[in-house]
Design brief:
By secondary structure, the chain is α+β, with helices and mostly antiparallel strands. The chain is globular. α5 crosses α6 and α7 runs antiparallel to α8. A ten-stranded mixed beta sheet has the order 1-2-37-36-35-34-32-33-31-30, sandwiched between helices. The longest helix has 18 residues. The protein has a domain of 284 residues: Alpha/Beta hydrolase fold, catalytic domain (Rossmann fold). It has eleven helices and 37 strands. This is Peptidase S9 family protein. InterPro entries: 6-blade_b-propeller_TolB-like, AB_hydrolase_fold, Peptidase_S9_cat, Peptidase_S9A. One of its GO terms (biological process) is proteolysis.
Length: 644
Amino acid sequence: MRTPLFVFTLFAAGLSQAATPERIESGNRVSENLPEIPAELIDSLNRYQNTRGAGFAGWTGDGCLLVSTRFADTAQAHRVCQPLGTREQLTFHKEPVAGITPAPAKAARPGFVYAKDKGGDEFSQLYWFDLASRENVLLTDGKRSQNGGTVISDDGTLMAYGSTARNGKDRDIWLRDMRSGETRLLLAAGGSWSALDFAPDGKTLLVSEYRSINDSRPGEVDVATGKLTLFPVEGGTAAFGGFEYARNGKGVYFVSDEKSEFLQLRHHDPATGKTRVLSKDIPWDVSAFAQSADGGKLAFLSNEDGISRLRVLDTATGKPLPLPELPVGVSGGLQFSPDGARIALSINTATSPSDVYVIDLAGAALTRWTRSEVGGLDSSQFVTPTLVRFKSFDGRSIPAFYYRPPGVAPDRKVPVLINIHGGPEGQAQPSFSPTIQYQLRELGVAVLVPNVRGSSGYGKTYLQLDNGFKRKDSVKDIGALLDWIAAQPGLDKDRVGVVGGSYGGYMVLASMVDYNDRIRAGVDVVGISHFSTFLTNTESYRRDLRRAEYGDEREPRMRAFHERIAPLNNARAITKPLFVAQGFNDPRVPYTEAEQMVKAVRGNGGDVWFLMFKDEGHGFRKKPNSDYYGAAEMLFWRKYLLGP
């Protein structure tokens, strides 16, 4: 007897429904196939999720510090006026604030400019916070434009910033008179331009066009006329960092890799036409520099194998000034006090979140100004990583930070998580991560954080090793790391997970395609699943910048390459559990990248979890969302990495 056709139809419909889990919406949270989070897991995570850091944003004219930290759900601006003093909260928004730029000490009105978007959409608007009246004033158009990179003149009368307000695609330079409130377009040259520094007299402005991480074009704009004069670039193409007028009136300081493998600090004197390299004996990138107001002192940070090192020079003699010993970690936010006697900076270490420190230069003394909370945990029990290197397919040495669970015998095999940074031009550094510390102490897993080829910090040759048609070479580095893991007596090669965000999310998906039999499970956060669809759908102001890295999808040969390597097109190879997390408002990697990958992987026999927040963008910046995602991720690892 033949089975009626409608029976087959009903059976197929049942399979289809089983393969597509119910989509559950709870407030701003959307999920599919996520189990309920156990109360005991939430409780065990609570202290780790209640750590916080403080980042230095600048000095106020009265000698206080502006810092960014979170006491409720989002990071806000605070003021601290003495070492370990009260962090006085100044802004109170539901959305986090960023880009805090204080008015210079000579400004008539004390206050600061800050940026704020909506739901992580990155269309940030600029606001002025007046320290006298405590009022917030919107400075930009309040529309679908991206505004940031604020620079204020020494007397506080002019503010320059980058904005896409003109056409939504190009980032132009706009100028605002802080007295009258008049705003005008100063430079509209096409491309992505940033304001860098006003001349001491406010008549000219240093600017730069960013074309890629390897190619920037610096220049100077006449503030009165808008006339742009481009500076010559040795070798024709180079990367540039900071660019400032020398405060003593003699030339400019800038960072570039012209005819060099690394970003070097340089001084150019137009009177003589000579350029001096001030960091020529340091075979590492200079990541930041700052000058005292009188130009007598110059401080700079170098990034040496992921660790920050501070140096301060007397500009008259070129000799270094004595400094106190600093915590070993990652530093930023470098700035002199208005009188030039002190330096403030943020320092983050593997065992402590970011805090603000002040160096008294006369006594070479270090004073801690903030002490951020670590959820009541004993920070002395946190784990510091060791730096290891492994050889990849072409013999190249690849660096990675290796965290091992405390109290575990060296030869006892433990599960491993490979945590891959984004960018791809980012760099993993030994900074504080409560998530990693939880994974080490509570899950008992080892964590490896590699800097695969294409990472910054190791010279421009290394930086370009994954560009265009070399894209899969960075994925091969993960294959080499799996080989290294297999050779270690204390690591379990049969229990390896991969996790990464943004480009790191692509690396997770690509690694699961290529090494499905060697990876137990993967977590992809706001990751790219197909470079051509990503480039088509990312915001227009980012598209050309990303083409410089990933290749132009409009070219047939490159598009064919994208089709060939896309995790989306090779999803059938992924049969291991996958967790995909996304922000709905993400302007960089649109949520469609996540949706299409989840749909493609379902049906391969592996478990697929999906989580999306409707009030987030490229990552999760609001504490309730971040906490929920963190708990879901730990549950995923418990089930699929630690389970049988």
